[in-house]
Amino acid sequence: MTLGSGDFPTDGHGWAELLPERRAGSPLKGEHRAAWAVIGAGVTGLACARRLGELHPDQDIVLLDARLADQSASGRNSGFAVAVSHFSGGFQADRMDDYRRVNRINQAGLDLLRAQVAKAAIDCQWREDGFIHTAADRLAIRECGHFLRYLEAMEIAHTPLDGAALEAQLGAALYQGGVHVHQGVLLQPAALVRGLADTLPANVRLHEQSPVLGIDKGAPLTLTLPGGTLRSDKLVLAVNHEAAKLGFLRRRLIGSTLSGSFTRVLSDDELASLGSLTEWGVLSLHGGGATVRLTADRRLCLRNAAEYHGGELLPDALLARRQAIHRAGFEKRFPQLAHVPFEYAWSGVEGISRNGTNFFGRQADNIYLAGGYSGSGVSRGTAFGTALADHASGNRSPLIEDCLASEPGAWIPPRPLLDIGAFFTVRSRFRGVGLDR
Ligand SMILES: Cc1cc2nc3c(=O)[nH]c(=O)nc-3n(C[C@H](O)[C@H](O)[C@H](O)COP(=O)(O)OP(=O)(O)OC[C@H]3O[C@@H](n4cnc5c(N)ncnc54)[C@H](O)[C@@H]3O)c2cc1C
Predict the structure, then answer these.
(1) Which atom of ligand 1 is nearest to the CA of 213?
(2) In whole angstroms, what is the distance from residue 272 CA to residue 422 CA?
(3) 416 Cβ contact list (under 8 Å, min separation 6)
(4) Could you tell me the distance, in angstroms and rounded to a whole number, from the CA of residue 69 to the centre of ligand 1?
(5) Is residue 24 within 8 Å of 84, Cβ to Cβ?
(6) Mean pLDDT in runs of 10 for the chain (437 residues)?
(7) What number does the ligand 1 atom closest to the CA of 376 have?
């Protein structure tokens, strides 16, 4: 398949639209040569390029993105930078080493992000007070029991909450129980990505709206773009589910499209009709349940739809239709705010594998890749991107070992079975979701 610029569509509905205008990196034009090329300026590519810049201060690193960096999944997610993962389906004592490994990666990414946000004074509504995991019905309450056992066994700081406490804190009577996990950060994802993109080391050059259409695997590697070519000695792919477009992980990683809506800014009275917390993030204990936030800029934001749409964003007409699902989830939780309109909806594509693994390591001579973290990539992608820069530079570290220990990706069948399988894989996450959607 020959790629063209049209293979990297985007739209103007994301978290970036809540921010002021920004001057983006110019598209790559003409012939270029660099020691390192990094494709993809989401959190993985940004972290990788930053670390490469630090490791090789005398070398040129070129970071390319097909779109504007803040329109990646990294700029469109729900803004939970996770320290503690929730492994659904029951606590298994014999998996504790793996739980610890994943949480070490999460924590490493969170620590890196915290340091970068502080150092560059990135204004991304960073709030470090953890999240609330909620259960709205019987199945989810059972999952809450598993989660509490896991938190206790792992000695992770948390506070169990009953329905009354949740209603008092959030203003939503829907939830029967839950738990506040103390670690974890809420942030504005597009503001984070912009801040990271605009404060890269001096030897890293970012070109946005620069899709890589082909890779010639000679020495040096040659990347073809609409406006020119880039020759590089080494290449890092940080392109998430779009790796398949460049011929990598075709049968291992696909894109699932998630969507949600934001309200307008709430008035003082509307805010007062919610609970005692002025900013919060809720993650459902059911994998298909809604992710809900009260943001620092006083909007409620709810994401409760997921589907297979060929790994692309939802077109405007479909997004408008999905608002009915977002609306139903919103009014069920906040009937006192049924009069508050949504200002707009957004969609984003997460990279998922059949067995929920992450991808890390060498793909071919001088080509490295990291990606595919489902709905948990903000801190993990930062850790993977940083570790990949070290790994590709020949360094060793415990973080690299943790990333390399990721389970291999399970095989995904070719089209049209892929489309059918992907459709059912994504749909299966809603099985038993009950009231939590
Ligand atoms: C709606 C939604 C909500 C989510 N919520 C959360 C959350 O709250 N917390 C969390 O931790 N995770 C969440 N996630 C997942 C998280 O956003 C991702 O795991 C993470 O952002 C992946 O980062 P990445 O850098 O690997 O990939 P991306 O952010 O997808 O970046 C990949 C980049 O590669 C570029 N690219 C692709 N192909 C090419 C090419 N050929 N040439 C040039 N550029 C190319 C793309 O344009 C893109 O900018 C969510 C995801 C979605 C969609």
Answers:
(1) 41
(2) 42
(3) none
(4) 10
(5) no
(6) 90 93 95 98 98 98 98 97 92 95 98 98 98 93 95 97 98 97 98 98 98 97 98 98 96 94 97 96 92 97 95 96 96 98 96 94 98 95 98 98 95 75 68 71
(7) 11
Q: Are 187 and 79 in contact (CB under 8 A)?
A: yes
pTM of this structure: 0.97
Residues 6+ apart with CB under 8 A from 32: 62, 228, 229, 230, 231
Counting ligand 1 atoms within 8 A of each CB, the residue from 353, 378, 380, 382 with the most, and so the one to mutate, is: 378
205 in contact with ligand 1, CB cutoff 6 A: no
Residue 77 in contact with ligand 1 by CB distance below 6 A? yes
The 8-class DSSP code of residue 338 comes to T
**Cα-based angle 116, 119, 121 (whole degrees, multiple of 5):** 95
Per-residue burial over 272-295, b if 16 or more Cβ lie within 10 Å, else e, is eebbeeeebbbbbbbbbbbbbbbb
**Ligand 1 atom with the shortest distance to the CA of 42:** 25
Top mutation candidate among 15, 64, 78 for ligand 1, by most atoms within 8 Å of CB: 78
CA angle 274, 275, 278 (to 5 degrees): 90
Q: Give me 218's structure tokens.
A: 């000679």
Q: Are 386 and 228 in contact (CB under 8 A)?
A: no
What one-character DSSP code corresponds to residue 405?
Answer: T
Residue-range domains of the chain with CATH: 5-76+191-253+356-406 (3.50.50.60)
147 CA → ligand 1 middle, Å: 27
Decide: 371 in ligand 1 pocket, CB within 6 A: yes
40 ligand 1 Cβ < 6 A: yes
Q: Is 314 in the pocket of ligand 1 (CB under 6 A)?
A: no
CA of 208 to the centre of ligand 1 (A): 15
Distances (CA, A) of 303 to 163, 326, 389, 437: 21, 7, 33, 9
